[in-house]
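Milestone 3.1: sequence recovery, worked example.
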C-alpha cells in the first residue's frame, strides 16, 4: 500500500484529535497530535493573548515542522491533528486581525512560515471537519479545559470565516469535508467505518466532496 500524509483540519472543538486517534488505530497509521498539555505557552496565551500570541505561533511553527519531518521519515502512512497551514492562514491571521499580534510581528512570522512550509512535503489529503459554532462551544464547555474558558462564540465565528476563505483557495491536495455535528465517530462504530472508508476512497482518487451525518 502506498504511503500517505493526511492532515486533519478544523476549528477548536470540532473533533480533530478524536478522529486522528481512531483513524490511526484503525488503519495502523503514524499519528501526530497538537501540543496541548505539554505546550509551554498555551495557558499563558489564553490568560493574556496580546503578551503571548507571537511566542505561541513561533512554538507551533517549529512543533508542526518537526511533526511533518518525523511523519515523512516513518515508513507508515501518517495522520496529523491540525495542519501547519492553519497556524498561518487561520490563527496567526486572527490574532493579527484582533490586534493581539502587531503588523511587524505578523509579517516576520509569515516570512518564517513561508520558508518552513516550502521545505515540507505536500500532503496527500486534507480532512476538513466542520460543525456550527454553538456545537463547538458546547463541546469546549463539556471538555472543561481551564485554559479554554476564555474562548468566545465571536472568536470561534471569526476562525470559522477564515476557515471558509482558506478552504476555498486551498489547492495543495484533495479536500474531504466532514460535518461532525451529526456524525458521532467517537461512540458509533458504524460512523467511524463510514469515515474511514470515505478517506480511503478519497486517497484512491474517488470523487467525494463532503460527508454529512
Amino acid at each position: 500500500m502506498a504511503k500517505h500524509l493526511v492532515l486533519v483540519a478544523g476549528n477548536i472543538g470540532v473533533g480533530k484529535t478524536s478522529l486522528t486517534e481512531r483513524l490511526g488505530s484503525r488503519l495502523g497509521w503514524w499519528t501526530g497530535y497538537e501540543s496541548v498539555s505539554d505546550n509551554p505557552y498555551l495557558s499563558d496565551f489564553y490568560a493574556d493573548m496580546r503578551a503571548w500570541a507571537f511566542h505561541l505561533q513561533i512554538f507551533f511553527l517549529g512543533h508542526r515542522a518537526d511533526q511533518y519531518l518525523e511523519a515523512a521519515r516513518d515508513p507508515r502512512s501518517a495522520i496529523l491533528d491540525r495542519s501547519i497551514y492553519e497556524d498561518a492562514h487561520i490563527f496567526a491571521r486572527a490574532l493579527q486581525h484582533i490586534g493581539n499580534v502587531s503588523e511587524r510581528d505578523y509579517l516576520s512570522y509569515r516570512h518564517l512560515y513561508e520558508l518552513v512550509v516550502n521545505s515540507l512535503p505536500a500532503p496527500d489529503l486534507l480532512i476538513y471537519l466542520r460543525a456550527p459554532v454553538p456545537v463547538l462551544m458546547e463541546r469546549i464547555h463539556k471538555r472543561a479545559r481551564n485554559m479554554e474558558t476564555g474562548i468566545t462564540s465571536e472568536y470561534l465565528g471569526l476562525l470559522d470565516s477564515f476557515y471558509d476563505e482558506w478552504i476555498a483557495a486551498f489547492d495543495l491536495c484533495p479536500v474531504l469535508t466532514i460535518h461532525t455535528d451529526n456524525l458521532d465517530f467517537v461512540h458509533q462504530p458504524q460512523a467511524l467505518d463510514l469515515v474511514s472508508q470515505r478517506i480511503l476512497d478519497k486517497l484512491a482518487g474517488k470523487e467525494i466532496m463532503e460527508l454529512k451525518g
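Residues 15 and 98 are 25 Å apart (CA to CA). The chain has one domain: 5-211.
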